[in-house]
Structure formats: C-alpha cells, structure tokens
Amino acid sequence: MVREFPATTEEVRQAVLDEEKDLIIHGTKIFDKEPVLSGAEAVESTPLFEPWTGTGDVYYKIRKNAIAPRHFLESADQGTIGLRFVVIAVNQNRTRVRIDAVYVESAHHTVHISDGTVEKAEMQELKDRLKAAQEAAQEAADAKRRRESAEVVHQTYVRQRDDETSRLSNAQTTEKQLEEEVKTVRHEVERRVRAPGADLKAAPFQSAATLQPLSAYAEVLVLIVTPHWLGVETPEGQRGWIPEERLEQLP
C-alpha cells in the first residue's frame, strides 16, 4: 500500500519511527479475545523481505511466534509477521510512504501475503500519528507567536512607560528651570526702599509732587529704568518714581 502525505520527510520519518517502536501490529490479531496484537519489535533488517533497492529510507517491525494471524491469506501454524515501511521524499512538502506486510511460517517457511487490512490499519495509524504531531507543532508555533506578541506588547508598554517617565522628568526639570528663571527675573525687577524710607514722586525729579511716603524696606516692582530714577509700582498698585540710590535689591 502506497500513500502520499502533505508533510516533510522528517515529519513522516519521525511518525514512522514512533510507529515502528509501538510494539503493536495493527490490523491483525491471533486470538479473538485480544483486541490488538502486541509484542512486536523494531529491527534494522529481516529476511522476510527481499533487500530494498529503491530510493527512500526503510524501516522494519516484526512480531515473532504469531499463530495463524488474521488477515493474512490462508495463514496457518506459527510464524513471524513482518512489516516494511519505506519513506520516499516527493518534494519539500510531500512524502510518499509504502507499507508491505507478510506472514512467514516458521516450520515450512510458507509466505502468506496480507489481504490489505494490516497495511490499511498501519497506514491509518501513521496518518493519525502524523496529524497529532502536526497539530502539536502548530499549537507550539501558535503558543510561541502568542508569547512573542505578548512580549512585543510588554516591550511597547515598557517603552511607553519609559518615554512617559522621561517626558515627566524633562517637564519637571523644565518647571524647575522656569521657577529659577522667574526667581531670577523677580530678583532683577523687585526692589525695596532703603532705610529710613523714601517719597514716591509723580515724576523723575526731586521737585515733583510726592504721591506718598514709603517706609523703610517697603517692596516695589521696577517698571521703568532710567540713569538715575526708577519707575516703580507698589503692592497696592500705586505707580511713581524713586531715585535709584534710595532702592536696594531684595536679600
């Protein structure tokens, strides 16, 4: 029996190796009360078949001391069941498998060929194993993709978090710089009246009218700078002029 599978040669070869070593001859039995025929063994070669001269990899499984096994034509007495698996690469994604089954009597060396049931059962077992292996490989690949996707999401989250932390740090630094600049500017434009005090004039000369007397250390805001007078504003909003020498910077 020959069949092609949509699988790589390595996938099929592994499925055949697993089937070769499962200790069961599928599709036959020697006693009706036993559902399967166990006790098989994998061998590297067997005289039950002529040497294989074609292409492909060959594997064997035999079961000794079988008594008149079912589904071998006119089987009788005690003998050995032999299975031969030939794995042949068709192309990169397709592989052909050939399965042969015989029963040879130990005493008379009579060869009994299979009616096809054994090959069919072994081929179905191979198909099931291959399908299970491919599904497991697909599940593993899907799990890997999910892990990779989760890792991408995690890395994206970490990167965004780091970016936000960096932006926050930059913003805090900028805020601090602005506060320092404001402090510097205020230090530049704010003054206080020297002791014992000074008059707030309506114009920048001594004979100008006095708007109000300012006590010592009263704070004012500088609005206009001239060589000798400063235009200022009091905390109450009153604007006027004070000689520059009557003001000092805040401590």
What is the strand and helix layout of this fold?
Layout lengths: L1 E4 L3 H12 L3 E2 L11 E2 L2 E3 L13 E11 L10 E14 L2 E12 L5 E3 L3 H73 E4 L3 E5 L8 E6 L3 E7 L3 E5 L5 E5 L3 E3 L2
Antiparallel strand pairs: 1-7, 2-3, 4-5, 5-6, 6-7, 7-8, 9-12, 9-15, 10-11, 12-13, 13-14
Structure, described:
There is one protein chain. By secondary structure, the chain is α+β, with helices and mostly antiparallel strands. The protein folds into two domains: 2-139, Kinase associated domain 1, KA1 (TATA-Binding Protein, 2-Layer Sandwich), CATH 3.30.310.80; 189-249, SH3 Domains (SH3 type barrels, Roll). 34% of the residues lie in helices and 34% in strands. Strands 1, 4, 5, 6, 7 and 8 form a six-stranded antiparallel beta sheet that branches. Strands 14-13-12-9-15 form a five-stranded antiparallel beta sheet. Strands 2-3 form a two-stranded antiparallel sheet. β6 (78-91) and β7 (94-105) form a beta hairpin. It is rod-shaped and about 150 Å long. The termini are far apart. 23% of the residues are buried.
